[in-house]
Amino acid sequence: MEYRELGRTGLKVSAVGYGTGPLGDLFGVTDEEVALQSVQAALDSGINLFDTSPYYGSAEERLGRALRGIRDEVLVVTKAGRYGLDDFNFSPARIRTSIDTGLRLLGTDHVDILLLHDIEFVPLGPVLTDSIAELARIRAQGKCRFIGVSGYPISTLRRVIEETDVDVVLSYAHGTLLDGCLETDLLPVARDRGVGVINAAAVALGLLTRGGSRIGIEHPASAEIRAAADAARKVAERHGIDISMLANQYAIQHSGCATTLVGTAKPAHLAQAVQAVTAPIDEDVIREVLDAVRDVRGTCWTSGLPENN
Fold it and tell me: Any idea where the domains of the chain sit in the sequence?
């Protein structure tokens, strides 16, 4: 495992982080024992960054049980503001309740990073003022060490970095074979401000897997992006390469982010992501894939309110 600095936080994070959505049955039912074994497998592989959220059902509680006795050896990220598919509340009072509940479920007196979860679904004005000010108060109280936001639209994340004093942002489905917007439109301003960027969804919510997306809702990508994913998959197949392995390699080795989150309760998928940290990339295949998807590399889908995209 490689460890890299996350912005100017001073944190050394594993190149692969563990996303706990599957622990809370976000993508289907996960048995309690399987959930605990998944966390242990991540620990055994050298992963030290664990990302969770109240939106992920029982994930905070299960993660807390799995980390009992070793909490100080790892870095924990949790979130506030999103509690269901269409349940958003970024008020200061709800953020305070959320972090206190999260700390109790996680069995700790602080988290390393506290993020506002998927802020693009609400008007940004109050989030950029009241909500982030509340995060700063929580940081001052010692309940978290660093603060930030998560979301999909690059323009939203850029605005947060440019207009507020955050430490970290979490971006998903951008630092991928299909989407180069993170590298061109977000990382330069993040580096300039010293803000750490956590990458996630290297397989573009399932598009860059052999079987295609199996998320429980309709995939938000356009027909053009889905067609490009099919083209990328065919290139990989032609070379006898698993497209998801190639996607993980690209995100981990080429995206420019300190860490890439992988959410899975399947040992084989976790092992593949860890292998992707150091497995040599076939640069000729990468170039062929990028050429096959060149028409959509600067294209994003819409998430949240139209004005936040």
Answer: 3-308
Distance of CA 94 to the CA centre of its chain: 23
CA–CA distance, 292 with 272 (Å, rounded to integer): 24
Look up 56 and say whether it is catalytic.
yes
Rounded CA-CA distance 165/136 in Å is 9
Task: Give the start-end residues of each E strand in the chain.
Answer: 3-5, 12-14, 16-19, 49-51, 75-80, 82-84, 87-88, 111-116, 144-151, 168-172, 196-200, 259-263
Round to whole Å and give the CA distance between 213 and 219. Answer: 7
Spatial distance between the Cα atoms of 69 and 290, rounded to a whole number of angstroms: 45
Question: Which of 26, 32, 1, 25 has its CA nearest to residue 15?
Answer: 1
Residues 235-262 pLDDT 10s: 999 999 999 999 999 999 999 999 999 9
What tokens appear for 38 in the block?
């998944």
Query: Looking at 55, 56, 152, 250, which residue is catalytic?
Result: 56
Domain 3-308 bears CATH identifier 3.20.20.100: yes
pLDDT at 264: 84
pLDDT in tens, 257-303: 999 999 888 888 899 999 999 999 999 999 999 999 999 999 999 99
